[in-house]
Amino acid sequence: MSIPLGVLTRYDEMGASSRLRYYLFRNALENGGFRPEYHPFFRAAYLRRLYAGQGKSRLLAAGALLRRLALLPRLPERLLVEYELLPELSAAFELKFLRRHRYILNFDDNVWEKYASRPRLAGKYDELIRRADGVIAANDFLLERVAALNPNAIKIPTVVDLGAYDPAGVKKFPRFTVGWIGTPVTYSYLEQAAGALRTMSRAADFELLVIARRDLEARAIPGVRMRFADWSADAEAGLLLQCHAGIMPLTDDPFSRGKSAYKLIQYQAAGLPAIASPVGENVRVIRHGVTGFLADSPAEWADALKQLASDSGLCAAMGLAARAAAFDYSLQKYGPVEAVFLRSALSVSL
């Protein structure tokens, strides 16, 4: 008999973190003896507004909180929670509800930064972690933080389903194409790397394909040949497979150091060598000179791109090495791992 598991996500499947760390694991959880019941905090309208550049909606957030509060009495005993049960409310208030449950928390970002300057909430995540039956962290930066508070912690990266990235019969774009995939919110990382991108454009002939929203074309970076495509779950793998390389520039700050390098994981699944900032998990995902390059200065970014664009043999060899490394960040590897961890932490026996 399967065990009910309340899966309390921040978003529905439109939100990348929720889709990849919760909904993607549905079959693995079911195969592990659970019956997952998904309950997103925000509805799709909240993200659509955010991605359209209209900012956060207090009205939609208030409605989400009221729905979550109404849901609490109906939740099963065992829970898997994305960050927190009740955003913007104190740990003491949240724990009044959680004390009747066994729960596991799951982190893929340095969300502590969100509350860092707010004394009433600054220690919220730490207190929730101490009381949790287990904690899942997406990278070493986060694992080190949560393991200091709760010994029952495990690293499970944000993973790809390798079956969705089948290169058979896929032709590359005619022009050497560098892919970047993200959201209108994270597009700011590309804008902050504008200097490096312009230096790359002077060093090699390439086109930057931005897989996010087509209307970001209005914010195209001058001096860089760019093309924009709408992201969709159905289209992302096919677009990446047609690229020749991928990039992931980051700023070096506490929030970015807690990011999970998921773009690089997608590039590996698509068999693409990558160029990335040497920040946080990027350093662990990329094997410098084997599956891609870590580049800091504009000159290093330009040199890495020039090597890949001018040497098709090197680009292909790195792409094969990247694809071989992708299993270590795959659903095929970590689906069973997560199910076993949840059964142990939540005291579930098959």
Describe the fold and architecture.
- The protein has 350 residues and is α/β, with parallel strands linked by helices.
- It folds into 2 domains: 3-159 and 330-345, 3-Layer(aba) Sandwich (Rossmann fold), CATH 3.40.50; 162-329, 3-Layer(aba) Sandwich (Rossmann fold), CATH 3.40.50.2000.
- The chain is 40% helix and 17% strand.
- It is built from 17 helices and 12 strands.
- The protein has helices at 16-21, 26-31, 44-51, 58-71, 91-98, 112-115, 124-131, 140-147, 188-192, 194-203, 236-241, 254-257, 262-269, 282-285, 298-310, 312-325, 331-345, and strands spanning 3-9, 34-40, 78-82, 102-107, 134-137, 153-155, 177-181, 207-212, 226-230, 245-248, 274-276, 292-294.
- The strands form 2 sheets. Strands 2-1-3-4-5-6 form a 6-stranded parallel β-sheet. Strands 9-8-7-10-11-12 form a 6-stranded parallel β-sheet, with helices on both faces.
- Helix 5 (91-98) runs parallel beside helix 7 and helix 10 packs parallel to helix 15 (298-310).
- The chain is globular and about 60 Å long.
